[in-house]
UniProtKB/TrEMBL annotation, chain A:
Keyword Cell inner membrane among UniProt keywords: no
Annotated signal sequence range: none
Pfam family, one: ABC_tran
Keywords: Amino-acid transport, ATP-binding, Nucleotide-binding, Transport
Provenance organism: Fusibacter bizertensis
PANTHER family for this protein: HIGH-AFFINITY BRANCHED-CHAIN AMINO ACID TRANSPORT ATP-BINDING PROTEIN LIVF (PTHR43820)
Record's protein name: ABC transporter ATP-binding protein
Highest taxon listed in the record's lineage: Bacteria
GO MF entries: ATP binding
InterPro entries the UniProt entry points to: AAA+_ATPase, ABC_branched_ATPase_LivF/BraG, ABC_transporter-like_ATP-bd, ABC_transporter-like_CS, BCAA_Transport_ATP-bd_LivF, P-loop_NTPase
UniProtKB/TrEMBL annotation, chain B:
Recorded family membership: Belongs to the binding-protein-dependent transport system permease family. LivHM subfamily.
Keyword match Transport: yes
Name of the protein in its database record: Branched-chain amino acid ABC transporter permease
Membrane protein topology class: Multi-pass membrane protein
Automatic annotation (TrEMBL), chain D:
Name of the featured protein: ABC transporter ATP-binding protein
Family matches, as InterPro entries: AAA+_ATPase (IPR003593), ABC_AA/LPS_Transport (IPR051120), ABC_transporter-like_ATP-bd (IPR003439), BCA_ABC_TP_C (IPR032823), P-loop_NTPase (IPR027417)
Pfam families: ABC_tran, BCA_ABC_TP_C
Source superkingdom: Bacteria
Biological classification of the source: Bacteria, Bacillati, Bacillota, Clostridia, Eubacteriales
Keywords noted in UniProt: ATP-binding, Nucleotide-binding, Transport
CDD domains named among the record's database cross-references: ABC_Mj1267_LivG_branched
MF terms in GO: ATP binding
SUPFAM superfamilies the record matches: P-loop containing nucleoside triphosphate hydrolases
Matches recorded under PANTHER family: AMINO ACID ABC TRANSPORTER ATP-BINDING PROTEIN, CONSERVED COMPONENT OF ABC TRANSPORTER FOR NATURAL AMINO ACIDS-RELATED
Automatic annotation (TrEMBL), chain E:
InterPro entries noted in UniProt: ABC_transp_permease, LivM-like
Protein known as: Branched-chain amino acid ABC transporter permease
Major subcellular location class: membrane
Subcellular location: Cell membrane
Bilayer topology term: Multi-pass membrane protein
Species: Fusibacter bizertensis
Domain of life: Bacteria
Entry keywords, A to Z: Cell membrane, Membrane, Transmembrane, Transmembrane helix
Pfam families for this protein: BPD_transp_2
Amino acid sequence: MLKVENIDVYYDKIHAIKDVSFTVKQGEVVTLIGANGAGKTTILKTISKILEPTRGVVLFEGEPLSKLLPHQLVYLGMAHVPEGRRVFAQMTVKENLEMGAYIRKDKSSMKADYDQIFTYFPRLKERMNQPSGTLSGGEQQMLAIGRALMSKPKLLLLDEPSMGLAPLLVKEIFNIVQTIKKQGTTILLVEQNANQALQVADRAYVLETGKIIKSGNAIELLEDDSVKKAYLGG
Amino acid sequence: MLFLQQLINGLSVGSIYALIALGYTMVYGIIKLINFAHGEIMMAGAYIAFLLAVNTNLPFVFVLVIAMVLSAVIGVVVEIIAYRPLRKAPRISVLITAIGVSFFLQNLALVLFKADPKIMPELINKSPITIGPLQVGTVTLTTLFLSIIFMIALDLFVKRTKPGKAMRAVSEDKEASILMGINVNRTISMTFAIGSALGALGGVLYAVMYTQVFPTLGVLPGLKAFVAAVFGGIGLIPGAVLGGFVIGMIETFTKAYLSTQWSDAIVFGLLIIVLLVKPTGILGKNQKEKV
Amino acid sequence: SKSEADGIIKLGVIGPMTGDYSMYGTAVAEGAKLAAKEINAAGGINGSDIQIVDYDSKGDKTEAVNAYNRLRDQDGIVGLVGGTFSGETLAIKEIAIGDNMPVLTPTATHSDVTLSAPNVFRACYTDPYQGATAAVFASEQLSAKTAAVLYNIEDAYSDGLAVAFNEKFKALGTVTDFEGYTTKDADFKAVLTKIAAKDPDVIFLPDYVAKVGVILSQIKELGIDVVAIGGDGWDGIEVDYKDVAEGHYFANHYAKTDETKVVQDFIKAYEAEYSKSPSALAALGYDSTYIMAQAIKTAGSNDATKIIDALAKTNSDYVTGHITFDANGDPVKSISIIQIVNGEHKLAAKVSGQ
Amino acid sequence: MALLEASNISIQFGGLKAVDQFNLQVNDNELVGLIGPNGAGKTTIFNMLTGVYLPSGGDIVLDGKSIVGKKPYEIVKMGASRTFQNIRLFKELTVLDNIKIAYHHDLHYSTLSSILRLPSYWKYEKIAQESCLEFLDLFDMRDYAETLAKNLPYGKQRKLEIARALATKPKILMLDEPAAGMNPHETQELMETISLIRKNFNIAILLIEHDMSLVMGICEKIVVLDYGRVIAEGTAEETKNNKDVIRVYLGE
Amino acid sequence: MTKKMFKNYMVNFAVVSIIFVILSLMMSGGILSKYYQGIIIFILINIILASSLNLVTGFLGQLTLGHAGFMAVGAYASALTSIVLKSIISDLPLLLVSLFVGGVSAGVVGIIIGIPALRLRGDYLAIITLGFGEVIRVIINNIEITGGAQGLTGIPRIASFKYAYWIAVVVILVLYRLTHSKQGRAIKSIREDEVAAEAVGVRTTYYKVLGFAIAAAFAGVGGGLYAHYIAFLDPNTFNFMRSVEILVIVVLGGMGSLTGTIVAATILTILPEALRGFAEFRMLLYSFMLILMMLFRPQGLFGTGEFKWQGIYDRTLKLRKALMNREKKEAVDGSTRGE
Ligand SMILES: Nc1ncnc2c1ncn2[C@@H]1O[C@H](COP(=O)(O)OP(=O)(O)OP(=O)(O)O)[C@@H](O)[C@H]1O
Ligand SMILES: Nc1ncnc2c1ncn2[C@@H]1O[C@H](COP(=O)(O)OP(=O)(O)OP(=O)(O)O)[C@@H](O)[C@H]1O
Ligand SMILES: [Mg+2]
Ligand SMILES: [Mg+2]
């Protein structure tokens, strides 16, 4: 479904991603783990064309993305929950969710999706008409996830979805990941909470200072000593 | 009676400020740019209308529409050439570019048309409507009508329609907007097109009302519209119109009853006081930043 | 100096050639160039041709100073026909005094321009003189008892005229309203409504055409019945505003309908050269160049002191009247009061001397 | 007497009671955790304690003095400083300058001495330079001294924000989700840093955090909030087993 | 460390003096005519005006559009002072005293305006300062002592190159030192994040007013120099466009870079003169070049950095790298990235 081939990404002079390649297959949950500043966010941004690689290609369902404009990816079925939530602060919770469904034309079936999101996050329903900039950090995070789900993506990129959420909700998030996986959505997950991420993931890649240093089956990595030591707090 | 006549005078000035402020606030609301070149788009619209009126005998509505469309094109071209490359630059750099564009268009008009004002043909029958001892200009009525209509239309557009919501999303976070599938460049172009068309509309009516077209035509109304937009709560569409009317009224009544020599100082003085009491303008919400 | 070596005598012109007021600087420069052309065709002065070097000031004082310095240092001008506006001329004045530069401004009407500056002269009359004359005309010829004044508070010219008119008319009748506006204003309905409520016999509108045209239009729009009087800033009003200006009066440097030969020759030459009719500013630029050229001829050299002495002794007929200078360097000449009748200038009165 | 005491403070936004009759006591050198579901009102409480929001009722006493109605900078001066849930560094300035800005209480020189470069300027700037570098040492960040804050990796930015808050020499430090966005390993480090701070600076800490390993690991007292009200208070052990807390916050 | 700084100071002082001596010699030797002297004086005046605005806009991060208003206050106050005193004291003390009065008056007005206005942020502050600039003009137009629209004459013409030069040097020096001190750091922190600044104990209101007042005072000094060079003042000199011109210099030079301001003031003062040959197209070209410059260097010529001697070498290296990077970036379509 998604294929990243030998990409290099720079921020001016900083060489953030060095020759990274990986794949995500249809229906899989793949997770990227790595320390702060390893380049996880950068990779996700490159996939959704917020950043451009100086070298290498990203293929989505076999199509190279270089031909497309960034916003067109959404039409192909990609959604991205960005780091730092990035909700539209002056717009209400409801409007933010509507923006998530920006490309959708099927008004009738959208109702059910709103309801679905409100069952995931009852808080959002309570805050429906509040400008989202005044939401608490965690509430904004819920909104960012809900917003991305509204586009009914084929491929969902999640950048630290559990950040700032209460323990109960963290569990909920990983439940959601499993639920939508079952519904057929492919997921690329970036998490600090590597332990839980590896538990829901099929496969994982370990990133260190812009390079992939390890990859494999999630369960195996969970048992890997070096991974345990560096990322699982063990 | 005198008071009523002055009220009408105030309405007349206010309606034109309101109309111009609409375009101003539209662009500001979306890209947070104090578009100094807005006045020059007005001027361009006025010259286009002037040339059409003098060289053809199209009816007023056509002249107006053509001027609006061409000005929208100019606005979009300016955006693409002068503002788009600066998307990532500090806001103030774009402001300076806008000032540069404003100078440029003024000087271009100066070279093309020379400084002396051209006389705008009477596109609308200007003989005032007399109600008892009172006189209301037809241009005033047209402007008044248009500013209210456009206020309602734009407000609905921005609040209710998809492209309108896309504009608001873009104004808050371009990157996140892309992730929603919004074409940011096209959305901004559309904003400029609408803003510039409104500017041209204001420019033509301004020129008709005050009979002249000249290269710096847009400077004063542009500035006043900016003030009006801020006064009403910048970025808010009804605020722009309200601000326009309030400024027009204050101006007229100071001149009529206080002092003409000091009127500018009084108007600005009041503006300053209002902003100090209500820092986000009349209709602005005093929302404290959530930290 | 440089120009002597080329056998060319350079005269400088400074005025707004770009910007809002470019028509004024351009008119002066065109008048000056026409005069230079005629003089050269007639054999030049003392065997040399004269050349006009005109620089833009945008009406800005800083620019004017730079332009003046450049004219003096780079171009080596012998005399200055400028500046066009009072502000820029005043900004140049102190430097010019230091340089002992012969300066003859065609159009700077501010009373201080020639004050304690033996090298500075002007071809136009001063603001106070013009304002007072208008008041006398209103009272004596139009039998006005009441007058209102509406002027541009930001503009020295408008302010100067307004104040002088006000002073003078107060002695002759009643000033009902003394109101101001700013350069940026476009809407005068509020103040006009206010003025109309007191029903004055005349309204004094000392400003330039562009503004006066708008004011007169709004006077008509509001249906106010009043006779308007203006100053030389009205020159050219009949071109675009003949409808709204019909019947009103203004003071000017010359009347186009004046049958005198100098006047008619000038108008013909100007129209032939530029295919448009000359404004009063063009006439003043033209006259000033002739006066300056005559002074250089009389001086017999480019020596500044001699030229200044010769300027002081000017005594001849020009397009804008018979000119001699008083001790200050201000002209002693007549004012033509013109009425717009059927869209044409009609000489209503010629007020002579102080 | 407690170092910081909030009694019955409340605030509402529109109709919403974000914080309702909240009480809190933090003693000298105590480490108190403030937890609760998202939107419970934790950050809002910080905002009231630091003068960003004015409580609609109740009183806050810091070190014997009421701080209600005081400006944030006055409260800093009185000894309370904080970090933000969304990192707020001086992005375009260097790491060292970020610290120096907070470290101004010991720099006694006037504007005039700056302009004239009087001896007092040199003396205190030298102190500033040295103390602030030492400060960075403490956080293992001296290498980044000349880096612009915006170019730091996320975890380091969090750390810098804590260091900056500490540079104001507070009596009580309030940390709003310092571990957010850190992996378990980094959280571990953070825990050590916090212990280090308590040891070296001898101050009280009030901590908001959703990472239970951190909260349960180091807090002496934990206050649990839900819908603006305290629903439980006690040691880690007590809270962990509190039914309500499990229901609304921890989950099974 | 202080030793290195001392050396640095000596180098800078030497350079500043050498420039002065060279310029003076060129002037007395007739290589630089009065025309160029005039331009240089205007450059110096613009340097003073723009660097003072840079303190507010570049360092403090507040957009103001009324700097010409402070310039006006300083110009009139100092002009009136010297008109009164000119028969009593000689040139240099006269200039200094009147500039002092001009600076203090403008500074006081700056405080009076600043205290309420600085509670507002961003574009609202811009509007208030714009309004203030206009109000000042109306006041000058309407009171007797200033000569109203007729302007003020009789000002002694005593602002020569040498005075202007050293005054500009002092202004830059003061601003440099101020911005490189505890006060300067506080001012910059407000630009970066006002909430955070307060949260670490910065008295934001105080520092805002301080910055505003100092900027206003120096604008007043700039205005005073102008008055004593032109020897004639009228209110129109200090219109909105003047404020804009000063702002353009600041942004083009780089917000928060005094060196940038100096360079930009020089370029933008010379540019209109250099374009004289183009007659009516002059201003068209000027504005065109302004747009180009902004497009080419949106962060300003110097960004937020200052010129440093030891930096020359690094800079050339950086430039080469930057050029290489630009090539790289060109391959990337940068059009739709977020802020
Ligand atoms: N806008 C930027 N400009 C310059 N450097 C940047 C920028 N964004 C990120 N970097 C650098 O690129 C590298 C990778 O950053 P990235 O944000 O992708 O890391 P990450 O793995 O997502 O980290 P985290 O876990 O903190 O989110 C880091 O060294 C970071 O400092
Ligand atoms: N300025 C405001 N206007 C309106 N509502 C607000 C405002 N600030 C906070 N709220 C609301 O008050 C509640 C408490 O917010 P607060 O940020 O204190 O939560 P929190 O406990 O810190 O949550 P989190 O753990 O998610 O950060 C939230 O529901 C939020 O929506
Ligand atoms: Mg990341
Ligand atoms: Mg919070």
